[in-house]
Write a structure and sequence with these properties.
Two copies of one chain form a homodimer. With 458 residues, chain A is of the alpha+beta class. Chain A is 37% helix and 19% strand. In chain A, the strands form four sheets. In chain A, strands 12, 13, 14, 15, 16, 17, 18 and 19 form an eight-stranded antiparallel beta sheet that branches. The first copy, chain A, has a five-stranded antiparallel beta sheet with strand order 5-6-10-8-9. Chain A is globular, with a radius of gyration of 22 Å.
């Protein structure tokens, strides 16, 4: 019973789908964030659910960790093989299996990316709205309970996964849920697997809710004198029930980064809100008028509209590139990302205290926020060679997490736990963390599925 | 170790909060549906979370079943003490603990009813939208993952519970979640407890999302020649993205029942849609115009508007009384309720086959449906003394369940499993039902929490 023996048996069964070449292992040991490269012992590329079940059965038998991986957009090292074992590369299972336009749902394999899905949906009048920025796989997005810029209107993966097919730690293949829009038939296993980061089973198929493509879309940016005014505008917008599709904050440091990154951007160096409205032309006009009133009453600048599709996509490309724009401010740096989410009434306080702490520190950390949800990120920029800077960043991130919990919030709105947030789980959950460990022990007693993430059971 | 010994110890600790009087036990052994009266061995009325924890610790120690109960609106016998033990009457824990208007959330004890909550919210401009018809407790609604007429717009309890306080089977008190709008911090325990029917723990506090009271509300009814045209109208409405607040079907038999029940009702004896629109006056006008076009293109009658608050409340009172109106068609009868939910593209087929089977049977079964979700109910009316009629009703219900599963749906959209749906769990879930049992065993190894519901572990 060993990892080596597992790899031997996997190679026998799956032949060239198994690779132990150093180049491929190194590639699967990379991560987008600051964690050190952690190559798995082998990489397996399944082509089907049955392949996944075969791999998992052998791994379970040999006590060999198995860690599913999408396209590696994770920011918390979720897919790193920290105890060795198999990186299960799901990116090749990338077929859209069936679109049901009447029911507004779709069945996909986990390696389908959100952009690929929306390309395939284009002619149907439907789309999948969850947009974390990166072109992540849908399996990865479900596994981290991802969301992003559109959650304020369309919810998170939690709200948009109807059902899953999952390979369990003993190789059994189960289905959670079905194509009904709602069900009260027992424990919500779909919700249990969404956000479980591959620690309870491997997602091999997803049934997703779709939404109608909006008849019209309009986008706008406006500048404010301070973050507090931005946040007050957002609170008022949400409270009035305006079904705004995106409402995003960039602080002054982030606006500077965006201006520097994108040659078409020339925003005043002040905090900004980026907004998008979806609906019929009439509904949008009404929403715009309401929000414009609020913006002006909180001292914001007049809207600058992005009316053409090109302008809109430039605007959101800029926003989506915030991570890279921030990173580009310091060539060669690594980013320690943060991801707190607080009740919106405490958001201004959370952001301004964070910004002050970053300002007083020796490193930079521009801030962006999905402020309609109370969620924001500081991108802490560090020299990858400097242990001192890593320590500073971790201290800043720690303070953000403690503050979020003190304000009634969470250490992660959308990125998940992975490797980076484990030290804060006890503080966030108390005894409920022990219940999570009980669930993990019940479902994966051998601790074979992505061990060491979310909970620690041995 | 016994139920008697548990009752003795409980009486010592909790004095007059514990009752073994036959009258009170009988009252707590009643149910709204056709299950036989099943009195618990004792009734305990906790006043606090600590009381609940005390009760559960003693029950765990003595192997005595403990079953939480709200106000008894359950339609599947969820709260019946089928293995004896303690009925934990949560109705007295009915305090609204805190309203956070800026964050649009509220913290309540589980015995607060939805009408009580909305009364307390009236001055805030906010409301809690989930409306199962009955004035159920919020703890009960969370436990069955309830929804009702407004789910098409506002979702179900699953979508509107942010966090819970739960007493576990060993008396530990945990918190699941927090007041952040979203979180990716580990397994979604909130979603696991919502819909778990008291089998995993006792909910002692709920944090709920609130919504802004709509600026305007309008309601309408219209008649169609057949159910199929109703359903096609609904599908088109949903696909166009109209954010309709309620869209309900009553079939011809149900319209007859409503006319007979409510002296102000005089609808043509045809299938009807009942609709409600929420929003700004402009947004509502737009929605109404869109839906009116669809209604007429599917051969529906002109809208009959309920414009005043009185007319609207009469309309929805009638719809909410559908259960009692149906029951009144046959004085002294009991109702076998059904609750299937299918992908909306299969809804017309599911309803028409059901109606034909009922028509061909010796009993009546008017149909209502939350058709925007694909969910409908036939209220099968039986003579409580007739085993033959019960058998007929169960056969009809069984056919509805099998059909729902065949069409990609579920055996229960919102009522839950309780006693009545256990026989269909294996068919709906396959191996996933065994995973549910694993979870139950892990969390409540002594099978003390509402044993025999949802799963069977011994």
């Amino acid at each position: 019973m060993s990892i080596d023996s597992a790899i031997g048996r996997l190679s026998e069964k799956l032949g060239r789908q198994v690779s132990t070449s150093m180049a491929i292992r190194m590639e699967h040991g990379q991560n987008e964030s600051y964690f050190r490269v952690t190559p798995p012992d082998a990489v397996v590329r399944p082509k089907s659910t049955e392949d996944v079940a075969r791999v998992v059965r052998i791994c379970a038998d040999e006590g060999c960790p198995v860690i599913a991986r999408g396209v590696g957009t994770s920011l918390e090292g979720h897919a790193l093989a920290i105890r060795g074992g198999i990186s299960l590369d799901m990116a090749g299972m990338d077929t859209v299996l069936g679109i049901n336009p009447d029911d507004m749902d779709v069945i996909v394999q986990p390696g389908v990316t959100r952009e690929q899905l929306n390309t395939e949906l284009r002619a149907t009048g439907l789309f999948f709205p969850i947009d974390p920025g990166a072109n992540a796989t849908l399996g990865g997005m479900a596994s981290t309970r991802a969301s992003g810029t559109t959650a304020v209107r369309y919810g998170t993966m939690k709200d948009n996964v109807l059902a899953l097919e999952v390979v369990m730690g003993d190789g059994r293949i189960i289905r959670t849920g079905n194509r009904a829009r709602k069900s009260s038939a027992g424990y919500d296993l779909t919700a249990l697997f969404v956000g479980s980061e591959g620690t309870l089973g491997i997602i091999t198929e997803l049934t997703l809710k779709l939404h109608g493509q909006p008849e019209s879309i309009s986008s706008a940016v406006c500048a404010f004198d301070d973050v507090d005014s931005c946040v007050r505008t957002v609170i008022a917008t949400i409270q009035l029930g305006v079904p705004i599709a995106r409402i995003e904050l960039a602080d002054t440091a982030m606006v500077r980064a965006l201006n520097a990154w994108d040659r078409d951007m020339d925003l005043p160096e002040k905090p900004h809100l980026f907004m998008e409205f979806h609906g019929t032309p009439g509904a949008i006009a009404e929403q715009e008028a309401t929000v414009a009133d609020l913006v002006s009453s909180f001292g914001g600048s007049a809207f600058e509209w992005a009316t053409t599709a090109e302008d809109r996509s430039a605007l959101w490309r800029a926003r989506h590139n915030a991570y890279f724009a921030a990173k580009a401010m310091r060539p060669g740096c690594r980013v320690v990302t943060t991801d707190v989410c607080v009740p919106i009434s405490r958001l201004a306080e959370a952001i301004s205290e964070t910004a002050a702490e970053i300002e007083a520190s020796p490193i930079d950390g521009p801030i962006v926020g999905h402020v309609g949800d109370g969620n924001f990120h500081a991108a802490l920029l560090i020299d990858p060679e400097s242990q001192d800077e890593l320590a500073v960043a971790k201290e800043l991130a720690g303070k953000m997490n403690h503050r979020a919990l003190r304000l009634g919030g969470t250490i992660t709105g959308e990125h998940g736990i992975g490797v980076g947030k484990i030290p804060f789980m006890a503080e966030e959950h108390g005894d409920a963390w022990a219940i999570m460990a009980d669930l993990k022990r019940a479902i994966d007693p051998g601790d074979v599925m992505n061990p060491g993430k979310i909970v620690k059971i041995n």
